[in-house]
Structure formats: structure tokens, C-alpha cells
Amino acid sequence: MAFSISFQSSILTTTIGVFKRSLSTTRMLANKQMTVRDALNTAMDDEMERDERVFILGEEVALYDGAYKVSRGLYKKYGEQRVIDTPITEIGFAGIAVGAAMAGLRPICEFMTFNFSMQAIDHVINSAAKTFYMSAGRVNVPIVFRGPNGAAAGVAAQHSQCFGAWYGQCPGLKVISPYSSEDARGLLKAAIRDPDPVVFLENELLYGNQYPITDEVLDKEFVLPIGKAKIERKGDHITLVAHSKGVELALEAAKELSSVGIEAEVINLRSLRPLDINTIIESVVRTNHIISVEQGWPYAGIGSEIAAQIMESEAFYHLDAPLIRVTGADVPMPYTKSLEIAALPQINDIAEAVKRILGVKDV
Amino acid sequence: MMYSSVMLKRLTNLNFFKKQYMLYSSISGNIQDLSYRGINKVNFIPTLDINEPSLNSMPIFRILDDNGDIVSNCNSVPVIIPENDELLKMYKSMVLLSIMDKILYESQRQGRISFYMTNEGEEAAQIGSAAGIHFNDQVYGQYREAGVLLFRGFTPEQFMNQCFGNIEDLGKGKQMPVHYGSKDLNFVTLSSPLTTQLPQAVGTAYSFKLLKNNRCTIVYFGEGAASEGDAHAAFNFASTLNCPIIFFCRNNGFAISTPANEQYRGDGIISHGPGYGIATIRVDGNDILAVYNATLKAREYVMTNTRPLILEAMTYRRGHHSTSDDSTAYRSKDEIEQWANKNPITRLKKFLEKKNLWNDQYELEYTKDTKKQIMQMFAIASKKNKPNWKEMFNDVYYEIPDHLLEQMNSLENHISHYPEHYVIE
Ligand SMILES: Cc1ncc(C[n+]2csc(CCOP(=O)(O)OP(=O)(O)O)c2C)c(N)n1
Asked: What are the Transketolase-like pyrimidine-binding domain coordinates in residue numbering (chain A) (predicted)?
């Protein structure tokens, strides 16, 4: 029996927008800062320098520096053999990436957005993910498929959706969904070095965000382990599990809740497959409450998977209330801003859900 | 050229195929009796040659030169010049389109709408082809065909309501700006993933053929979109299924920043014609009379032969790709300037002036009035309410399922508890 209760997102007043902006300026006050875009860019640069087999291909990645400028300067530095502008055919260049990886190169295949990876999905699922298995371990396919994923702003149904659950379902793939600059840099470097195909789901709305970064993270040999979550905020009352943009929402909700005496623990999943269920379980054992937060759809989503895995673990016996999923609404993304806001989980949806689960009356 | 036209005649001739199959039963050692199922004509030669692709380019059909004069050797084709009223309608539509483009483009710059794509430089290709097809024909666009929709009767108000996603938007605020559509005007709502419209348009053409309803399909696409596998599937199916469809390629030199000569190495998009056994026309896309005539002829061809045709309009995308692009990063100001001199609107204007159908005074009045009207419509569209939040749950399914009804009700409950947090329109 499943307990999962889907919590709908709701319309929000414009004050939240102001709130968000003020938060991102406080971030800039920390020591060393780096944008997610630069983190991704330097990660590719490091790895291209380190390993000649690494090359980038995709639409507009070379001369134009990438549609979102993530590959800025790399064409200039590494030339047209290693940074390749392709004709417009995702199925074509994804297939070429698979073939190149089978033959020993290490392609970074950029999708202008993951929405367009749908054109190429056969190569990702049926070839990249399964070839190692089907060749009985003889041929591995070290590729990184990367690009922006998830809801962007004002671009509606065909440009705003999360493919985390789609790719996460497929054995043979590793699926990463970074939040901060540290995540982006450490995990992309790890993904490029990984012997398996990795789907690397970035978020357009996070590209320009600055996050504090340490010298260790800037080190050329810095990598993060794939499959480990990070506790972004300690708390004893409830666990909020999220990935990508959802982590930002969860952290902001946690901050708001803290002012009414609720301390939420925020787990940044970082990796969707493998899923670091142990970190979640350890947290739930302490907090006895859990909410999952994601911008994608509820049905068979990442939250559903977490709920199922908790049910199957001893953490289930530590729960004081059933898990709640805070997700995008179960509809294609509408365009009009007021509808778009209503279709996406908002900070107050998370706060609401937390209060509901903890039985706290509104203050 | 020779090769393709000979082949096409054969392809359209069913008897030809029948004869080929029969030959297999009567091989007698005579070489002329031998046939392969995969090619049309057998010709053995004793020399081993690599067939290099031809470096020649197919010629471009045009009627008007840059000065708006009919080119001197044009007598060789029976050119159709539209009636004066129609000519003026075509001209005014181009001007209107360009004014609307400027206003909507600017409004995005000012943050009033989230996204826009202009049609600048391609007005003739759009309006000329729209004038050459029938109202009943089904149109599939890519996204840079607002002129086609405008000419078919979509009103400036409708364009603006769509871009604002307001309560009057036919799409009820569900699609992003520029993704117009109108079932009434036989114009399929635009879809963002490139080139998906091509095989779909072939499917539509195939159904028209079976329904014998005297309709054809016209599908627009850029030369960049032609690289997608979908384009090639579409060509092949249209040819093997004998579908009445015009593949209208706007070869405007760029796909975002990728120049056409990096998109492919052949002779433009019509070079696929011979490969797929499809007839082709290449036309000067900045010459509205040439585009109009080419489209008329193409339509007649696809309807009488029940065959596809690729029509390639050579033109230039003068504006940025979209409001997310700055094209000065990858092309020179000089180049853009050069093409400004080949403005398709000016070319028709010169022609009309020579026919005494237009003059500077008319131009001044028409542009002034049009600008004023469009600005007014813009102001109205921007102030209209947005669709009710409930709209979010409609149209996911034909009938709204229980779980969405539940969500809608709980959201309604939630809003009534916290009305101060919501903008209800
Ligand atoms: C499947 C897919 N891949 C990539 C894109 C991103 N994209 C949008 S427009 C465009 C360029 C298309 O160029 P072209 O077909 O030449 O048309 P033009 O813009 O020149 O009119 C690209 C790459 C997309 N919309 N869909």
C-alpha cells in the first residue's frame, strides 16, 4: 500500500520573486564565488586539458560558445577537432557520440536542451546504456550527455520539463542533477572520467547563479563521487529531499520555517541514479518526517521512487507521518506566467506541506 | 535537372513499374531484358569511375530584379501577375507584418513578453507562397511564417493575444509566444521540436489523397531543420506514398549561428529532390512575384500528379534568430546591410510604383495608420486579463480525469483560505 499524497502547487504572489532575488544577493557576499555556468565550463576545460580523448559536440557549441554559453572559449582553445558544431540532428550527433565512445574517445554530447534529447533517445537508452551489458562487458560507452533540463521560464510545454525520472529509470545510465557550482564542477568532472554513460541534467535558471566555492573545489583534480547526496542544511524536525532547482526551493522554505521554529534538514540528491538512499534513511531516522521536492511531474517521479525505497527500508518504521511529494502539477507546462507559477512547486507549497505533516497550525 | 525530370515522369507512370516487374519472368540473355528492382534503367559500362557530386548549382527562378522591373528574358515563362487588388493586398500584408514584427520585438526587449521571433527579410517568401495556395490547403509551419498566417486571415489582435497569453488567446495561454495556430484557418499550431512538422504534414497529405478531398499540404521549414532525420523520412514517405505536398524550404542562410554552408555540403535543399525522386523548384525568395508563381505551379503539379515537390526559396534572415540571439556575434554588419538593399518589400514597392499603384504618400499614410492601430491593439492585448488558473488543468485529456479534478478542487480550497496571496483574474 502506498501512502504517497501528491501535494499540488499553487499560485503565488509576486512577493516571493522579490524574496528570491534578495537571497541570491546575500550569496554573493561569501568569499569566493563562481557561477554554475563557469563551474561547468571549467570542468570541461580541465578535463579536455587532462585527457585528449575528451571532445564536445552539439548544436552551436563551437563558434557560438553554446546556446547558453556553457562552452565559452573552448572552441578557441581546443579548435574544431575537439569542439564540433553539428548540423541540426540530435539523433545524428548522439549516434556519432556513441560510435566515437565505443571506439575509444570520450564525447561530451550537448543537447541544446534535454527536451530535444527526445529526438535522440534511442541512442541514449538502447545503445549508450545497454552496449556494455550486451557486449558482455567488452565495449563500454563513456559519454556525458549534458544540457539544460527541467522547467525554464516562459517557454511552455515543449521547452519546460524534467527528464530526471525518464532517464533515471534506465539501467546502464548514471543520472546526475547538480544544484550548486561545487556540484556542477565536481560532478561533471567525475562524469567525464566515468567509464559509463552519464546523463547530466543541468538547469538553465541556475546557470547564472553564484555559489561560494573553496580552493579545494577549484583544484584540477577535484571530483565528487557519483551517487552521494549532500546534506545542505542540518535540521531535526523534518527531512526535505530535492535535486537541482528543487534544492534552492527547499533551502528557502527551510529558512522561512526556521523563523517559526521548525528546523528542516535539506538533502541535495546530486545523483538520481544511483540514488543515495542511505543518506535519506539516516536523516529520516533522526527527523521522522520526509517531504520530497521536485519540479517534475508527480507520477512515477523521483519522489515516488524515494517513497517506495523508504517503504522498503527500516526508515519506514521511523516515520511519524506518510511522505508527501511536492512536485510540479500533473499537466504540461502552460505558458502564461500566472499559470506557470501555479504549475510549479513554490516555496510556500513546501512550507505548507511541512506544517501539514508536522501538524503545525498556521501562524 | 534532366535526370530528375526524366525519372519523375517514370515514377508517376505506374505502367513503367509494372513493366519492370514483368521483365523478371522473361530473362533471355538479352541485356535489355535485365532489370534491377532498385534502379530505373540498366546501363553497363566498361570504365570504373567515381561519380563526384556536381559542383553546379541549380538556377534560381526570378521575375523581378532589385529595381522592381520584370527581368528582360522573362517572356519564356507564362508569368501570372496578380490583379491590382491582390497585389496591393500582398504588399500591405508585407508592410503590416514588418510593423508588427518591430513592435513585438521591441516589446520583448522591454520585458513585456518573454520571447519573440521576427520574419524580417522573409516577408516575400511567406506572403507570396500564402497567396499561391488555396484556403482549404493545410499549412504546417516551423515558426517563421507569421506572414502566411496573417495572409490567411489571422488578425493582428490574435497575434498579440497569443504573445501575451491572455484570456483571448486562442491557445488559452498554454503555448509560448510565436507558437500560433488556427484550426479555422487550416494552420496547424506550431510545435517547438524542429522538423516534426514534416512527417506529420506528409501524413496529412496522405490522408487528403485517400479522402480525395482536393486538398494538399504545404509544410514550411528552414534549411537547418532539413538536417533532422525527420526531413528525410518525410521526403521518402511523400515520394513512395505519392502524397500531394509542397515542401517549402526557407533557405535563409542561417540556423541560429550556423551558416547554411556548414549545415550541408550539397546544392541546397532541392538537391535532395533527385535522391528521393521528388520534383523541385528553386526560387528567389525575395521576389514575391516569383514565389507566388512558383507556388501556383507547385500546387498545380502536386495536385495533378499526386506527387510531392520541394520548393526552395533562397532568402536571408535579416533579423536575429530570436530575442535570445545577437547575430552580430557571427555575421558582419556589412553583410546585413547588403541584404537590407535586397529588401523584398522595397522590391515590390518599386514594381507597384511603376504601375502607378503606390506612391510615397500612400506609403506614409499606410505605415502611419498601421503603426497607430497596432500600438493600440498592443496596449489592449497587454492589459487583458490572463486566463483563470483553472485553465491549467483543462485540455490535458479530452475529459478531465478525477485526479486533476481533485487537484483543482483542493487548489480552489487553498486559494479561498489564503486569498491575500493570489492574483485572481
Ligand atoms: C529538435 C530541435 N533541436 C533544436 C532546436 C533549437 N533550435 C530552434 S530554431 C533552430 C535553428 C533552425 O534553423 P532553420 O531551420 O534554418 O530555420 P530559421 O531559424 O533559419 O528560420 C534550432 C537549432 C529545436 N527547436 N528543436
From this structure: 34-209
